Amino acid sequence: MTEYPNDSSTPSRPFPIRPWMVVACVVAIYLSLVYFWNDQKVMEFVFPRQIGEGIGYDGQFTYFIARDPLGAAALIKERLDYPAYRYQRILHPILTRILSLGYEPVMPWVMLLIDYLMIVIGVAALEVLLTDLGVSRWHALTYGFFGGIVAAARATTTEPLAFGLVIVAILAGMKGRIRWQAILFGLAALAKEPTLFFAAAFVLYYLTQKRYRDALLVGAASLIPFLIWQLVLWLWLGEVAMGSGGAGATGFEIIPFGGVWRIGVESPPVFAYMFPYLALGAILPTLLALILSGRDLLMGKAHPYVWCVLLNAAVIPTVPFSTFREPFGIIRFLPGLVLSFLLYAALWVKWERPRRPLVYASIWVIWSLVLIG
């Protein structure tokens, strides 16, 4: 496997090609092919038959809530799901309703456009973070082409929006724009709750650096709106929104990687098929991230990216069986680990350590596409 050239200090060209441009073109082509392959029916992005087995997928809940913000709870219940859990990721449907001006026929297009633009914006911001660490901007393709992001756009789920906001929030913080970082982390939490691990990572870093005001600002802006919204949902719907998933979800695991081992209990043939993929794309990177980041913290090497990869890796062993058993479910859970590991591996290069982890991270792209297939 060859390394990308380090272009962090190369002279600018009149019309340089950037990773975000490549991602914008490739993802646009992919989404267009999906559209034309399905008889030019935009609703295929909302109710993807190939992913949702004929009953739709998580993007349908964004559509239901955007179409009828107050009345969607009853429809979600009819589909034997949990309204509070679906409503907690409120940012995507609210943006969809605002940008569509409440006009239902264009809502699927707006949902798709939001995800598409946030993939491109996320990659563009990630380029800056990588070049600031002295590595090639082209490593941003690892995130931009990761299946958990691209396929999420195909199913109009929340990951592109949530993690795009996270990347821009990280960039704002690294550039000293702490207020903007706090606001963006707060929005990301309302798009998808696992993004709170990134906010927590920066809070912990600021605390260790005795930047108490920054820690308070980021912590409060990230957590308070999220908790208020959780309270509203509980008072309104009578349900606790926080949980391991919607209909059919199992609980978080106590035994490390218990969700993986339970596949073997339920179906040994499926376990034999899936375990190599899960080991390569989830288990081994998680263990590596925990060991290396933990060692760095013990050595006193404080950096936000160390905390980011530690927290995002720490949650993977608890991922429910219902997520691990579903290929699309697990790749949608991994963008946080992929993003944090990518930044951490780039930090290694800045610390004059081997760049192999940065290069090997690109395997995630191939792995996720094969797993989806």
- The string of secondary-structure elements, in order, is HHHHHHHHHHHHHHHHHHHHH
What is the approximate shape?
A: globular
Oligomeric state of this protein: single chain
* Overall average pLDDT: 90
The low-pLDDT segments are none
The major pleated sheet works out as:
none
Give the % helix: 55-70%
Q: Strand portion, in percent?
A: under 5%
* End-to-end separation: 23 Å
The domain tally reads 1
CA-based gyration radius: 20 Å
Question: How many individual β-strands?
Answer: 0
**Helical region count?**
21
Structural class: mainly alpha
Per-chain topology:
Layout: H1 19-37, H2 49-52, H3 59-67, H4 72-78, H5 83-87, H6 91-99, H7 107-132, H8 141-144, H9 147-154, H10 159-174, H11 178-191, H12 196-208, H13 212-237, H14 258-266, H15 268-298, H16 304-314, H17 321-324, H18 327-333, H19 335-350, H20 356-360, H21 363-372
Helix pairs in contact: 1-7, 3-4, 3-6, 6-7, 7-9, 7-10, 9-18, 10-11, 11-13, 12-13, 12-16, 14-15, 15-16, 15-21, 16-19
Structural description of this entry:
- There is one protein chain.
- About 70% of the residues lie in helices and about 0% in strands.
- Helix 7 packs antiparallel against helix 9, helix 10 (about 160-175) packs antiparallel against helix 11 and helix 15 packs antiparallel against helix 16 (about 305-315).
- It has one domain (about 20-240, about 255-370).
- It is mostly helical and about 375 residues long.
- The longest helix is centred in the C-terminal third of the chain and has 31 residues, at about 270-300.
- The protein contains 21 helices and no strands.
